């Protein structure tokens, strides 16, 4: 058992185990750090969305990528950080084409829930109106690229039963996009498809023929704010190449 | 030298429209038009979307009657997933019917009490500062209170069945995603937060008494206001009785002769076509067999009462008989009778909702039916303003490739233009000065149809109406501004 060390978050002393993830340590001690691409027990963090940004040694750092070290002094809640997180969420909205009223994921969408939580009304940035496609090629999954936030969950945290990645990144910079291997997606079973759709934090990956199947009030974020909701995803399989990671 | 009068915007209707009236040198009306100046484009931008999104996305074209679009699209998409209208489960169909009748109830209440009542209660030529819902509340407190409560009842029915009052999401391909518990139903029976459904019925009876009395006192101007011949179109159910959710298409001509009967709406393209004019975004649908000149139809409450043989609820049926006795005509072509017809439909909806709320099928749990995919689907419903049609074509991979919407107000386009022309000629011919009251008379003719030009643009109080008289070169001869 590792020896505990002391860190401070917003001036509050916390005892934690070295190498533990800051987001989870903070949560265990009653400090909420907003996240988007992160989910509990995900293994190596993705660090793509930066919504969990905190201040450490005068630098802005994604908390999910930070490990506990002796004597760490972190700032989590400040006006500057709140505005920064809000700006990051706004950037995700303007970079894609998100129309929540017509989206199947509305009420279950983590991006939407964060928008509400951070009190985003109108983005301060110009919409990019990117011309993106909707992929209908798969028999099982509809890929709505307009809503993809490039979080890496599908590309890095999902594999099929044979351990193969099903989604890849393609392109660079502002041309970066996720590519779906249709042949592999069509071989997924029902359970895997459900998990894949759940894994996507926005409405980019949808199960075909399914949508709006639960009433208002029964969706994930209808009654429970995103900060009080715990995402549950299947833990990495103990057997090699056994489905989801 | 010709003159042109423009009324823009036309107020107390849903959406944005304007009227232009052309006068010749002798101040005679030569031409008048009702322009729809907004463009929506839903038929185009729903293309490329997945079929299951249609009922949720397309309803966004309206904030007043989204339930009608939600359900018309759902009926069409039911067919796409292989489920015909009579193939839904009992709870699926009854929940949708309850939602729909609640929608018609609230929409009619909105139109009558908020938009039309100021004209009827204070007179067309009353001070414009008085012709609004605020004055109705001040001077007819009980009537206004009932109107607001009745609308609330309809909205609460929508909330309970669709999830929220505007833009609900409960109708899904092949059924519905929720049922209604006994506890939820109790809300509509106990007279605590909203009037109970039986109170609504009682109030509607009282308001219909008022309406009949109003017609007795004002018969001469109501009858002479905008009376012109037309065909009438609607869905009808069993035995040609009124059915607002589902049925066959039926139309009668101005004398009551049946010109379209027992038509499956899936075959609508065999019977209907649409004409296009350069000066308006609204199309002109017509019956192919009669052509664009003679084949246009009126739709909505007046037409539904003309087309149907009877109403399937007893109190409303009595009121229908009373209405028909009053005019002495089986077919009523007088535009201002839309209001009375609308109130009879409200009573019918209240009775129908009462029956549904007592139906144990609403607690069933078999919500959705699945069938075999088809490449297209058509859904038709009687919306508050008339016959509403949605048609979608869907690729094998679930992408909507084509969409055609024929919205209720579209059917009434020709009728509204004719009504404007008739009233403009009667009020403006030989008058060199145009008064605000004259222009309101033209708006009243349009307002009777409760046109929904897009969604939810309701002005209360001061209306930003500006009327300009121009010569043929565009020079302003006279301006009237209503503030």
The CATH class of the largest domain in chain A: Alpha Beta
Which CATH class of the largest domain in chain B applies here?
Mainly Alpha
DSSP strand content of chain A: 15-25%
- Share of helix among residues of chain B? 40-55%
Globally, the shape of chain B reads: globular
Say what oligomer this is: heterodimer
Biggest interface, chains and residues, is:
A-B, 19 and 24 residues
By CATH, the superfamily of the largest domain in chain B comes out as Cytochrome-c3 Hydrogenase, chain B
Gyration radius of chain B, rounded: 22 Å
Unreliable stretches of chain B: 454-467
CATH topology term of the largest domain in chain A: Alpha-Beta Plaits
CATH topology of the largest domain in chain B: Cytochrome-c3 Hydrogenase, chain B
User: How confident overall, as mean pLDDT of chain A?
Assistant: 91
Textual characterization of the structure:
The complex is a heterodimer of chains A (245) and B (483). Chain A is α+β, with helices and mostly antiparallel strands and 245 residues long. Chain A folds into two domains: 5-77, Roll (Ubiquitin-like (UB roll)); 81-228, Alpha-Beta Plaits. Helix content of chain A is 22%, strand content 16%. Chain A has seven helices and ten strands. In chain A, the strands form three sheets. A five-stranded mixed beta sheet of chain A has the order 2-1-5-3-4, with helices on one face. Chain A has a three-stranded antiparallel beta sheet with strand order 6-7-10. In chain A, strand 1 (5-9) and strand 2 (12-16) form a beta hairpin. Chain A starts with a strand and ends in a 22-residue tail after the last helix. The model of chain A is unreliable at 235-245 (pLDDT under 50). Chain B has two domains: 3-38 and 415-482, no CATH class; 42-173 and 184-411, Cytochrome-c3 Hydrogenase, chain B. Chain B is globular. In chain B, 41% of the residues lie in helices and 19% in strands. Mean pLDDT of chain B is 89; it is low at 454-467. In chain B, helix 4 (90-122) runs antiparallel to helix 6 (141-162). Chain B has 483 residues and is an alpha+beta fold. In chain B, strands 3-2-1-15-16 form a five-stranded antiparallel beta sheet, with helices on one face. Chain B has a four-stranded mixed beta sheet with strand order 8-7-6-11. Chain B has a three-stranded antiparallel beta sheet with strand order 12-13-14. Chains A and B meet through loops of A and helix 2 of B.
């Amino acid at each position: 058992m590792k020896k505990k060390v002391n860190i401070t978050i917003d001036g509050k002393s916390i005892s934690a185990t070295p190498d533990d993830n800051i987001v989870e340590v903070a949560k265990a001690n009653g400090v909420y750090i907003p996240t988007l691409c992160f989910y509990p027990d995900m293994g190596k963090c993705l660090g793509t969305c930066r919504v969990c940004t905190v201040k450490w040694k005068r630098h802005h750092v994604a908390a999910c990528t930070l490990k506990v070290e002796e004597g760490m002094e972190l700032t989590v809640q400040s006006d500057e950080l709140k505005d920064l997180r809000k700006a990051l969420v706004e950037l995700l909205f303007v970079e894609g084409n998100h129309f929540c009223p017509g989206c199947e994921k509305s009420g279950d969408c983590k991006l939407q829930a964060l928008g509400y939580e951070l009190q985003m009304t109108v983005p301060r940035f110009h919409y990019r109106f990117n011309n993106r496609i909707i992929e209908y090629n798969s028999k099982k999954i509809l890929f709505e690229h307009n809503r993809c936030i490039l979080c890496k969950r599908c590309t890095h945290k999902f594999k099929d039963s044979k351990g193969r990645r099903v989604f890849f990144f393609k392109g660079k910079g502002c041309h970066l996009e996720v590519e779906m291997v249709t042949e592999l997606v069509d071989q997924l079973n029902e359970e895997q498809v459900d998990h894949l759709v759940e894994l996507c934090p926005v409405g980019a990956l949808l199960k075909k023929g399914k949508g709006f199947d639960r009433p208002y009030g029964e969706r994930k974020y209808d009654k429970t704010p995103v900060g009080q909701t715990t995402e549950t995803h299947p833990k990495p399989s103990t057997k090699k190449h056994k489905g989801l990671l | 030298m010709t003159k042109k009068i423009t009324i823009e915007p036309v107020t107390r209707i849903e959406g944005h429209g304007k009227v232009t009236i052309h006068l010749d040198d002798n101040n005679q009306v030569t031409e008048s038009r009702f322009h729809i100046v907004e463009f929506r484009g839903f038929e185009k931008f729903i293309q490329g979307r997945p079929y299951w999104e249609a009922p949720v996305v397309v309803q966004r074209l309206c904030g007043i009657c989204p339930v009608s679009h939600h359900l018309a699209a759902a009926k069409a998409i039911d067919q796409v997933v292989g489920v015909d209208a009579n193939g839904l489960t009992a709870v699926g169909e009854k929940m949708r019917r309850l939602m729909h009748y609640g929608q018609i109830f609230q929409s009619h209440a909105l139109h009558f009490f908020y938009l039309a009542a100021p004209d009827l209660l204070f007179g067309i030529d009353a001070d414009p500062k008085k012709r609004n819902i605020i004055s109705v509340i001040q001077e007819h407190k009980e009537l206004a209170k009932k109107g607001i409560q009745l609308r609330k009842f309809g909205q609460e029915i929508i909330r309970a069945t669709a999830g929220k009052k505007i833009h609900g999401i409960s109708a899904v391909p092949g059924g519905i995603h929720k049922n209604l518990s006994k506890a939820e139903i109790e809300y509509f029976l106990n007279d605590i937060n909203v009037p109970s459904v039986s109170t609504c019925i009682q109030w509607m009876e009282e308001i219909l008494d008022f309406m009949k009395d109003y017609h007795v006192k004002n018969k001469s101007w109501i009858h002479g206001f905008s009376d012109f011949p037309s065909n009438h179109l609607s869905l009808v159910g069993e035995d040609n009785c009124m059915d607002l959710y589902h049925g066959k298409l039926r139309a009668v001509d101005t004398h009551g002769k049946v010109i379209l009967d027992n038509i499956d709406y899936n075959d609508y393209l065999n019977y209907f076509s649409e004409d296009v004019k350069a000066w308006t975004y609204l199309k002109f649908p017509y019956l192919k067999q009669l052509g664009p000149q003679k084949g246009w139809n009126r739709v909505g409450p007046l037409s539904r009462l003309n087309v149907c043989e009877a109403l399937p609820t007893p109190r409303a049926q009595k009121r229908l008989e009373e209405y028909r006795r009053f005019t002495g005509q089986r077919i009523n072509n007088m535009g201002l009778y839309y209001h009375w017809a609308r109130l009879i439909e409200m009573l019918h909806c209240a009775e129908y909702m009462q029956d549904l709320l007592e139906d144990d099928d609403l607690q069933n749990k078999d919500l959705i039916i699945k069938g075999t995919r088809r490449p297209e689907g058509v859904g038709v419903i009687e919306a508050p303003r008339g016959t509403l049609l949605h048609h979608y074509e869907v690729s094998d991979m679930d992408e909507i490739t084509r969409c055609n919407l024929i919205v209720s107000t579209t059917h009434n386009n020709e009728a509204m233009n004719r009504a404007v022309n008739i009233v403009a000629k009667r009020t403006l011919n030989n008058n060199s000065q145009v008064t605000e009251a004259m222009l309101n008379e033209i708006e009243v003719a349009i307002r009777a149809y409760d046109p929904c030009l897009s969604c939810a643009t309701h002005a209360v109080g001061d209306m930003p109406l500006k009327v300009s008289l121009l010569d043929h070169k565009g020079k302003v001869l006279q301006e009237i501004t209503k503030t």
